[in-house]
Amino acid sequence: MNLEIVSAEMSRKEDKSYVGRTVFTLENHKAPYEITFFSTRGTEWDYSLSFAGEPGSEEQFLETDALLENNDDVYNQLLDAALDQQEIVEEQ
């Protein structure tokens, strides 16, 4: 399944926690998705999946959620995209 990253961002809050998001599309899925990441230390991450715009198919949403739960490579690709953006912002 081909994944395309549309946008990503990550920021560090005053309490040193991290909040980020990655918007992405999956091949043959009509609606784009947004995954939001949160970590208090930047080591263990919680996430929330939602549609990035208009709601799409619930079946495809559940399929995507299962993909994130079961495929570390896909999950890490989305998290890395957000983390990469955070590093760029801090360097400027």
Task: Please provide a written account of the structure.
The structure is a single chain. The protein has a four-stranded antiparallel β-sheet, covered by helices on one side. The protein starts with a strand and ends with a helix. It has helices at residues 58-70, 72-91, and strands at 3-12, 18-26, 33-39, 46-51. The chain has one domain (3-88). A hairpin with a 5-residue loop joins strand 1 and strand 2. The protein has two helices and four strands; from the N terminus they run E-E-E-E-H-H. It is an alpha+beta fold and 92 residues long. The radius of gyration is 13 Å and the shape is elongated.
List the helices and strands and how they pair.
Layout: E1 3-12, E2 18-26, E3 33-39, E4 46-51, H1 58-70, H2 72-91
Antiparallel strand pairs: 1-2, 2-3, 3-4
Q: Which terms summarize this structure?
A:
alpha+beta; four-stranded antiparallel sheet; elongated
Give a summary of the structure in a few sentences:
The chain is of the alpha+beta class and 92 residues long. The protein has two helices and four strands, in the order ββββαα.
Question: What is the molecular shape?
Answer: elongated
Cα distance, first to last residue? 35 Å
- Low-confidence segments, given as residue ranges, are none
Looking across the biggest beta sheet, what order are the strands in? 1-2-3-4
* Number of H- or I-type helical stretches: 2
